[in-house]
Design a protein that fits this description.
Length: about 220
């Protein structure tokens, strides 16, 4: 009878040893940031009058922005997949934010990086709003109307409204292509709408995303 129990005990030990370990993800690194910065320093931001394409510098800057946006949204996606709790998620967002927002930028890139950082503010703020909740009762159309009515000195209010729109997008609603026009006023709120549209596209691309342990995201 004792002999008959031995295999069961061995099997239980084996099963315990195969339990999944806590996963560790690298969402964004200083090296990754530095590589993008190096690429930007090697290209021209001037436009070619004979070409309809974006200047190489602006094209790379757009890719840089998207790379950061996707990395941030992967954190949120894993939160939705119950890989991280809220506290862990906030910590991961802060880690990426410290790399993206707290950098000393080469003098020749200060203007373009500051512009990109201003755009990305709404990505981080939207994530925080989503995690904190309280945005669900608001209508996107009304939020956009109120945001566009904000004056230049109401930046904080405009960001709060834009962040609620971004939180809705993270929560599955669509926005903001039909509100973006070629001739719309060049305000920071409208820049945030463009960024939120990029967020929407990026989040759609992460459908089903759940990376394996050890991968650099």
């Amino acid at each position: 009878m004792v002999c008959g129990m031995a295999p069961q005990k061995k099997k239980a030990v084996q099963k315990e040893s195969e339990s999944p370990m806590k996963l560790f993800y690298i969402f964004y690194s200083q090296e990754r940031w530095d590589n993008w910065m190096k690429s930007l320093q090697e290209v021209d931001f001037g436009s070619d009058t004979d070409s309809e394409d974006l200047p190489d510098g602006l094209s790379i800057l757009s890719g840089f922005n998207e790379d950061i946006c996707v990395a941030v949204l992967k954190i949120i996606k894993l939160y939705q997949n119950n890989r991280f709790n809220k506290e862990e998620t906030v910590g991961r967002l802060q880690e990426v934010g410290s790399i993206v927002m707290d950098q000393e930028v080469p003098e020749d890139l200060v203007d373009v990086i500051s512009y990109m950082q201003d755009q990305l503010v709404v990505v981080f703020s939207s994530c925080t709003t989503y995690l904190d909740g309280g945005y669900e009762s608001t209508d996107i159309k009304d939020l956009i109307k109120d945001g566009r009515a904000c004056s230049e000195d109401e930046g904080e209010k405009a960001l709060d409204l834009a962040s609620k729109i971004g939180a809705h997008v993270i929560n599955g609603k669509s926005c903001c292509g039909r509100y973006i026009k070629d001739n719309m006023e060049p305000t920071m709120f409208n820049e945030w709408l463009i960024q939120i549209e990029m967020m929407s596209e990026a989040f759609s691309s992460l459908k089903g995303f759940d990376e394996q342990a050890g991968e650099d995201l």
